[in-house]
Every structure is written in structure tokens, then in C-alpha cells.
Write a structure and sequence with these properties.
The structure is a homodimer.
Chain A: E1 10-15, E2 18-24, E3 29-35, E4 40-44, E5 49-63, E6 66-71, E7 75-78, E8 84-87, E9 93-100
Chain lengths: 107, 107
């Protein structure tokens, strides 16, 4: 199926400046994330595996004990139960994450 | 972990003009696809579920009995064992696909 954005997506704003829009299949969830400048996804972990790509902007991301400054096209893997999070500085960030299984707290 | 592109990716060219670069976790695989203008991903199906996003360019994609002309930011779901494929016209296409489980034939 093809999705119409954003109307087919379920939207959340877990913290101000951090907007998440998700769609799910049986095994996969896509999460379209918009982060305003000077906002944060606090360090957290979950049992679902996560892989993602920077669609636009800039994001200083930490996975486990490694931190990198990400730009458009950069990709990463967050293994299950691994601490991760990040912050934006003067730029916004647009990120696409895939989760498997679909993230329970977002369904 | 953070990936360096393209050196951390396993590359394939299933048909000329159709370049695939993949990385995998335990449950997820990301597939970074570059299609030259006037090229094709022939209709096919597989047991892995697939979700994707258009990163750039244009792609005329068929999933089951539905065909759409996709542009940057468009997203879709290919349920397990569903026929799908597509073509480019005058533009190239850059696509990011997620598979779960990781696609056996790409590992």
C-alpha cells in the first residue's frame, strides 16, 4: 500500500519540538521524526531493534558509548536494549527510523 | 553503530542501472537503492516484509494491483509475498527500503 503523508500517519509529540509520525506493517514500523532546533530526544532504550537515516538537517546522536554528528544520508543501527538519544543545535532534523518489531509504545 | 557510506555496505547490481547497498541488524535490513533513468526493478515478491521511502527522484511503483508515481518523501508498505516492482523514466530514483527479517538473498 502507498501512504499519504501526513494523514495516514499516527502522530505523537513525546516532548515539545519532537514530532513523531508512524505507520506499521506486521513486522515493521516506519517512524518519521521532525526535531526543531535546540530540541532533544532524551537517552532511552527499548527492546525493538531500530535502524534509521537522516533525511535532512543535523543531529548529534549517541548510540551506546559513541556520539556522532549526523547529516543528510547518514545511517545507523540501534541494537535492541541499547541506550540512544540525541540533540539538535541551530538546525532542525528530519529522520526516518525503522523498528522491528513495531514499537509497542507507538502503536 | 554508525555506518560509513558506502564502504560499510554490501553492494549488488541485480540488473544494469539498479544498484543496491545493504546493511543488516538482527531483525532489520536497510537497502539503499539507486536507479538510473530508464531502468527497472522487475516485478517480484519475497517472504520478507518491506517498507520504504523515496529519498530523491521519481519512481513509478506497483504494489499488488496499485500503481503510483512516487516523489521525494513518499512512503509505502509491501506486505510479505506481495508482487511489486517499478520503473524510472527521465529521472533517477533514490530509495531507502527496510526489510524484516533481513532479506535472505541480499545477505
Amino acid at each position: 500500500m502507498f501512504y499519504d503523508f501526513p494523514q495516514d500517519f499516527k502522530a505523537f509529540e513525546p516532548v515539545p519540538g519532537f514530532l513523531v509520525r508512524v505507520v506499521s506493517g506486521e513486522r515493521l514500523m516506519l517512524s518519521h521524526v521532525t526535531l526543531a532546533p535546540h530540541s532533544e530526544t532524551p537517552l532511552h532504550r527499548h527492546s525493538e531493534e531500530q535502524m534509521g537515516i537522516m533525511l535532512d538537517g543535523e543531529f548529534e546522536m549517541t548510540i551506546g558509548d559513541e556520539t556522532r554528528f549526523l547529516k543528510k544520508g547518514d545511517m545507523y543501527l540501534v541494537p535492541a536494549n541499547t541506550m540512544h538519544g540525541g540533540i539538535t543545535h541551530n538546525e532542525h532534523a528530519l529522520i526516518l527510523d525503522a523498528f522491528s518489531p513495531p514499537r509497542e509504545t507507538y502503536r
